[in-house]
Amino acid sequence: MTTAKAEVSAPAATGSTNVRSGIEAPNAKRRKVAGRRTNFEMYSWLFMRLSGIVLIVLVFGHLLIMNVLDGGVHRINWGFVAGRWASPFWQTWDLLMLWLAELHGANGLRTVINDYARKDGTRFWLMVLLYASVILTIGLGTLVIFTFDPSMGG
Question: Where is this region: Disordered (predicted)?
């Protein structure tokens, strides 16, 4: 009975890159990037999980109150919103839902852009558009929640 030994090619044994495919061997030594290393991606991953759990509670609570209880959507009008936003509790609820939903979605889109935008220029401009839309949406939403004037309704 003979035992077959697996031969390891020279590039794989030394940990270099396969020139044809551009893929590094699993045991390749990583080159170190100068500067301080951050854990941004780990915190981003953790934020997605935690914000997703909180958003489930906030959104289902919102849907239950707005669409199911006390007559459903037929009772939603200016007076209902004015009465609801007169309470700091509901202002905080809606503000937290706005901020978490926007940041959760933006973080997901940031990941998609980083994964699929091939050119650096394309990635840059998509990120600029993403961050500008996030700032605009969060800014305007926060402004509306805090400056809402119930006396303007007719």
Answer: 1-21
